[in-house]
Write a structure and sequence with these properties.
It is built from 16 helices and 2 strands. It is an all-alpha fold.
């Protein structure tokens, strides 16, 4: 690649190449479902040609199914160990289907009405049908790795950790901000490792195994966990300060929902006048815009945002160190991982 080209453009080229391989394989998998289930699965994957229930394609809704980060990591991991992207396709399809399944169920649990700038699946089709569609996506994912023992081991581990992390994240919302029952930074890290890191870890490990280097898959699993924690922290920052036109969520949405995100936890743990004032504000709730804006300012004043970004940088460095040590062909994978964890808006 031309070193003078912008990094974002190079990432777009990589994603486009991976998408050109992934989408036909995804469509082949979805075609195995009952027709109504296939329409809902297609809707959940962000495709525009899904018939009833779909919003029209607009400039903010391209219908391209997102950035396909996890499948790209699987395919690039295979290439980084000397294999081909095609070898990793079963794993790439599996992790994308699991990711879609998790989002479908997340939106039901959180009652989030929008996904990818259009109605969430449950909002478009109903809760019951959406649950079935999510289950179908999960079943399809498992079927893609039948006969691939090492890859299936990692996907199974990811599913266990994903549920564990999601459960922890839900229980955090009912716990107080301060006091004996407060959520600690260590608890948060374990939650993020499961909720976000597990599927990124599976993508890296599955791709490595299918690419011909199963002995490296456990190290790549660890790499993916660190990458996932960094990615989740970046998402936390966006959840408070992100541009709604980019994130698709209202500004300060995580503060309004009492989400125990790292910037807030780090701010409270830092102590000082801003942290004390923040604790008082959060104890009363930040459900209205003015209070949420005040809480966001206090998080930043207490150092929560800077501390969170520092922790994210540490986990990203750990992930990159694994690639630098074990993967001499990992330039594209490395660049993608850096770009997705350095999001700022």
């Amino acid at each position: 690649m031309d070193p003078g080209r912008p990094a974002a453009r190079r990432d777009d080229d990589v994603i486009a190449r991976c998408r050109s391989l992934l989408e036909p394989a995804l469509r082949e998998a979805v075609a195995e479902l009952q027709p109504w289930g296939a329409r809902m699965a297609s809707f959940a994957l962000g495709w525009p040609d899904v018939g009833d229930g779909a919003d029209p394609v607009t400039p903010g809704n391209s219908g391209n199914g997102g950035k396909i980060l996890r499948p790209a990591i699987a395919m690039l991991s295979a290439e980084a160990v000397g294999g081909t992207a095609e070898q990793a396709l079963p794993g790439a399809v599996a992790v994308e289907l699991v990711h879609a399944f998790s989002l479908v169920h997340d939106d039901i649990i959180d009652r989030d009405e929008r996904r990818r700038h259009r109605d969430a699946l449950w909002k478009a089709y109903g809760v019951g049908p959406a649950v079935l569609a999510g289950d179908s996506l999960l079943a399809l994912a498992v079927s893609r790795l039948s006969g691939h023992g090492e890859a299936m081991r990692h996907l199974s581990a990811a599913l266990t950790e994903l549920v564990r992390g999601q459960t922890a994240d839900m229980t955090f919302e009912t716990r107080p901000w301060t006091g004996p029952e407060e959520v600690t930074v260590a608890e948060y890290t374990r939650m993020a490792s499961g909720k976000t890191g597990s599927l990124l870890a599976a993508a890296a490990a599955v791709g490595t195994a299918l690419g011909g280097a199963p002995a490296l898959s456990d190290r790549m699993w660890e790499m993916g966990l660190d990458l996932g924690i960094a990615f989740q922290i970046a998402d936390d920052v966006l959840g408070i300060w992100g541009d709604p036109r980019v994130t698709g969520k209202p500004v300060h949405s995580d503060l309004r929902r009492d989400k125990k995100t790292l910037p807030v936890l780090a701010a409270l743990a830092a102590g000082g006048p801003a942290a004390e004032e923040l604790a008082t504000v959060l104890a009363k709730g930040a459900g209205d815009e003015e209070t949420a804006r005040r809480a966001a300012r206090l998080v930043e004043e207490a150092g929560g945002r800077a501390l969170a970004e520092e922790v994210a940088a540490g986990h990203l460095s750990a992930a990159l160190a694994v690639m630098d040590e074990h993967l001499p062909r990992a330039a594209a994978l490395r660049a993608l991982c850096v770009s997705v964890t350095n999001r700022s808006h």
